[in-house]
Amino acid sequence: MLTPLLVFNENGIYCEAADVYIDPWRPVNKAIISHSHADHSRWGHKQYITHHTNIPIIKHRLGEINVSGKSYDETFTINNVKFSLHPAGHIIGSSQIRVEHKGEVWVFTGDYKIEDDGISQVFEPVKCHTFITECTFGLPPFKWEPQELVFNNINTWWDTNKSEGKTSVLFGYSLGKAQRLLKHLDSSIGKIYTHGAIENMTEVIRPMIDLPDTTLITKETKKTDLLGHIVLAPPSAHGSTWIRKMVPYVTASASGWMTFRGARRRRAIDKGFVLSDHCDWQGLLTAIKATEAHKIICTHGYTDIFSRYLREQGYDARTEKTQYEGELTDSEVDKADGGKS
Questions:
Q1: Global pTM exceeds 0.85
Q2: What is the mean pLDDT of residues 199-212?
Q3: What ranges do the domains of the chain cover?
């Protein structure tokens, strides 16, 4: 029996023909990295390959690593295996990874979404024989509204809080989600303040994207300075001593998990906005259909339910276990990063 082009082992997703790993979760010699969230880009590899816009981000997170950059659609060969990176639309610098060898083509998506968020290169369907897809939100109830509507609601919420003399605190991941929020906030309402983790990451990304001005919250910041304005913070800041100086404040979270009211109650959040950097149910199906792949491998998320549905639709679908976490429910990527981002 022929060895599959990509296999899942204790270190990650391995291409034996090229002797290279994709988003490995244990230290390896050579790794191709889809994006810089902590569950996909780990410290300790001897050599990293990623999209060139991801290099300053991954260095901010991991330090001075041995990393080389590639452009989208640029083909590079390792031991006669052809690789190329293609836009995943997940966050800035995120990539799908195409692998071709002896006429066989596989695509690993990493994390992805098909909606244009205004800061990431838009998702590009890549035709293949085998498609490795996340299914973080692989259930029919997950159905995203157009982001224009979501951001109208966020800005209206902020404006209402301002009229009531309250500070608006909006939680979102420091890498990706925070910059997406920042890009679409209406700065005519007031000033945008930031937690240090978000400010530091945003400063790395500013040279690549036009973003509104922000003000870092410091020890000298008074709660009266914040009244009527909005604060962007990572979810890990909720309930911390850092946030206590902001009373009176109103909290909100921007996440796909805000689809369910129970998630908002568990987090003790006043308001939930359904906004994800992953595909919803229909987005996953649309992306899979566009690849024209027959074999589908489902990772991290509702893998069993989603793969069973795909099999009912005629796909050769199965699941594989990984150490990827998708969009975290009860903690945030910053915790996995040790606070670096």
A1: yes
A2: 97
A3: 7-141+277-334, 147-273
